Amino acid sequence: MSREDQKQLLNQRLENLSLDTRAVRSGFIASSEGEHSPAVFMTSSFTYASASDAAAHFSGKVKGNIYSRFTNPSVRVFEDKLANLEGGERAIGTASGMGAILTMGLAYLAAGDHLLSSRDLFGSTVSLFNKYFKKLGIEVTYVDGTDLDAWQAAMQPNTKLLYCETPSNPLSQIVDVQKLSQIAKKGGALLAVDNCFCTPALQRPLELGADIVIHSATKYLDGQGRAVGGALVGSNELMEHAYGVVRTGGVSMSPFNAWIFAKGLETLGLRMRAHAEAALKIAEWLEAQPQVTKVHYAGLTSHPDHKLAAAQQSGFGGIIGFEVTSTKLGLVEAAWQVIDATEVLSITGNLGDVRSTITHPTTTTHGRLSDEERAQAGINDGLIRLSVGLESVEDIQADLARGLALL
Ligand SMILES: *Cc1c(COP(=O)(O)O)cnc(C)c1O
Hints:
Helix content is 41%, strand content 14%. It is α/β, with parallel strands linked by helices. It folds into two domains: 263 residues, Aspartate Aminotransferase, domain 2 (3-Layer(aba) Sandwich), CATH 3.40.640; 137 residues, Aspartate Aminotransferase, domain 1 (Alpha-Beta Complex). The strands form two sheets. It has a seven-stranded mixed sheet, with helices on both faces. A five-stranded mixed sheet has the order 8-9-12-11-10. Helix 2 packs antiparallel against helix 4 and helix 4 runs parallel beside helix 11. The longest helix has 20 residues. Bound molecules: pyridoxal-5'-phosphate.
């Protein structure tokens, strides 16, 4: 039986089973060695029984591995698992999350096309769009992701792709994916959703009408801060274009990293539930602190899009934004005080890790924006971003309380 047939059989057996079961069981087919856990295939190329066998592989008559920039068995385990969890026909692994977004641009846009995006985005995504997509002759405009009328009004005859992150970073803005997909379809455009913050454990954009899901596997898919990688997920037809870009452009995922991500996915549901449960407790606690003026977390009933988030997500994720104030200090100093008083949390720009991380967006991740751009994005100087890890809630709270008491 060919690997494709084996994969189909496996997916059929798993079809009606829960996400947790599929996270553990999907994607992996043992080699002739009978290994129980996915092996790592650290090989750049593959060999053939004869010249005619090689010719058949290169011509595509026989499906099989040729070169690890094209395909690799370890990368395929990750891709098949992720496709299964997202409910997509196919996933394509990439060297990083940004590699996936670059691939998206090269696969689905050309000079003269218009990309319409939500404004509240990961910083490098904005740089990629503004510096490099524009250089290729792609028109890029931004709207408030939560304002469906603004999306509709910004549609142009040449709009080919709509792009958003939901929940967004660092303000937890929620975009209505189902309604946005209707706007995209009506305008003949594709909709791509960056699903980093929720992962398929908490939100499946393809089921809500999106055409493409984008991932930075670096974040929750690994979940343990070990490797950089990314992915696109969607229909066979759309992914064939993305595959062409990855295979030829060389933004391929490393087999070793793919092995890490595939193992990370096995515990995805368990981890995401734990992150979300802890984050909600910490967000509620933060909301009750006098030095905290605002908490951005869609799990709170005070969040403007709480109902929408509750409908389109099965959990609220692990990222919280909160704004501090002080009677003695300016906003930047107050935020830095809270960050510097921590003893357990990591001061880093990364997120989606078992280790809780704390960041001051104004002076780090969003430091390259002008004051005006930051104000427009709603990023206050007292804003702190917290990625809630898997340490105990009490220890994380005590770590934050120490700094808050100094304000
Ligand atoms: C980190 C991140 C990316 C980029 O991923 P890399 O793996 O760092 O290239 C894209 N989108 C979001 C929301 C992210 O958090």
